[in-house]
Amino acid sequence: MKIWQKKEGTGSHDMVEKFTVGRDKEFDIMLAEYDVMGSIAHVKMLNSCDLLSDDDLKIILVGLEEIKIEIQHGNFTIEEGAEDIHSQVEASLTKKIGEAGKKIHSGRSRNDQVAIDIKLFLRAKIDEVATEVQSLFDLLISLSNEHKDKGLPGYTHLQLAMPSSFGLWFGAYAESLVDDLEMMVGAKKIINKNPLGSGAGYGSTFPLNRRMTTELLEFDTLNWNVVNAQMARGKGEKALASAMSFIASTLAKLSMDCCLYMNEHFGFIAFPEELTTGSSIMPHKRNPDVFELIRGKCNRIQSLPNELNLLCTNLPSGYHREMQLTKEILFPSIEELIFCIKMTHLMLSNIKIKEDILNDKKYTYLFTVDAVNQMVVAGTPFRDAYKSVGNQVAEGTFTYDPKTSAVPSSPHEGSIYRLCSEEIRVEMEKVMKKILG
Predict the structure, then answer these.
(1) What is the pTM of this model?
(2) Which domains can be identified in the chain, with CATH numbers?
(3) pLDDT band at 7 (very low <50, low <70, confident <90, very high)
(4) What is the reported pLDDT for 4?
(5) Which of 15, 27, 12, 217 is nearest to 112 (CA)?
(6) What integer pLDDT is reported at residue 8 of this predicted model?
(7) Is residue 2 predicted with pLDDT exceeding 70?
(8) What is the model's pLDDT at position 278?
(9) Does 11 score more than 70 pLDDT?
């Protein structure tokens, strides 16, 4: 029997139940530990407000800790007949400890229960994503420093532009991840507010201590207004989706670069055979399937903010059942993004860099700007130097030996001669401190 049923035989039509429950149980099990955490904080608060006796609190806490251990060991399931994780935890607790288990819902609604569960879950996932991103960042900085002297053609409009380096290329993606995590900081600030005690969105006549549960669950603050606590459903999810889309964009662009650079016409990088796939008909083929899938999965992740925006558009205040769909949109995508980050780390850990790429004569025009700059340093006005080198290119007489290229005496920040890896690392440390504390 559902927790909202008053007596047997008053439930919903089977099709209505199937439709309204949807995939909730599939994703609710991911919230199980967080539901127990919220319940532990809630009953401690009820006890402090004289709404739960010391004896009941003691036995309830023992039961909830047992359930938490079962969850951590993978021995907890949502049984047939239970509507959601909240009903299952309450039913399991009551089965363990008896009548006292029925008292844990005082001063709560499933609305603020699911809100607290999701916020605790998303907060933990933000920390997990950020930790994986930092690991990839550290690898990129290491590769940047290791390969800083290896030249790489730079492109604009996919045409030869100016000399770059693998140090510059790896470092660019490292710093891009710093920017991406700044978005994650904003998402966590929105999410890390306590909705518990807002009930169904209109509070309670019980003398609840919402500040206490905020401290117990280590939230930064609380959603002060109980109506806003429910209106915030979807907002934190959208904020996180936006932050995830930034990381996904960086990974997709990096993957596209890798697909190009390992193509035979470029031939800048390679990977061990076991990290690529073959063709069923062409014996020479080694395909960048991992990077293609990262690119595809991350492009799909970039659609998340739009999907959540459309789901939550034009809803009035108060709770609406559409909010349960945010779980099936967002939860699998979080795991997908984490997997993509791990796979990017695996691939780049095994990357092989081609030596002396820029010595090939087909890259001679990369150095036209260097030639112009050398003439300017020697006293020629820039426009005259530009025109002179341009005429040489047009006439097919331009030549340049990269070995004679002069290194600037005072290279600017972020150039191929001054990568600023340590400065970028400091920026990452700052942003990680904002996220993890």
Answers:
(1) 0.92
(2) 14-106 (1.10.275.10), 111-206+220-357 (1.20.200.10), 360-406 (no CATH)
(3) low
(4) 46
(5) 217
(6) 56
(7) no
(8) 83
(9) no
Q: What is the pLDDT of residue 119?
A: 97
pLDDT at 86 over 80: yes
